[in-house]
Amino acid sequence: MTCLSRTALAAALALSANGAGAELLCVAQGGDIDFGVYSVMDQAPRIVSTNITVICRSVGRRSQSVVRMAMGPSSHTNVVNIRRMRSHLGRSTLDYNIYVDPALTVVWGESPGINTAAQTLDLPVGSTTELTFPLYARIYPLQDVEPGNYTDVIRVTVSF
Question: Are 49 and 137 spatial neighbours (Cβ–Cβ below 8 Å)?
Fold first, then answer.
């Protein structure tokens, strides 16, 4: 038995700016996680990685900032420690999670300094840069689920 699975991250992307006056403009893109075809017979977890790119431009004056990325809970569990995709028929769920690190030890969440990612930015006036935030995801093996498409939506918040 096989099923397709996908988690949409970019569909629910939020940006926030720090302070009044536009000194830094940022746009985020990418981030969909596609686990491909899942088999209930697989003995090992399926691990994939992708990137979210944040493009920032300094306007008005030199911008020095820390760009932080947080990921909200699963739309089907309302927590970050247990994320689930739901089948298109709504009868089955697949457990998975998203991690900050390639070793899959830190579940990506919303607590700054604990389970989020951050990069320092120092841009001269009028310059643009791309920041790449890699993310890693694991879908757990041996889950007895019905065939079909599975999805989840995660809110990604980029603050600067």
Answer: yes
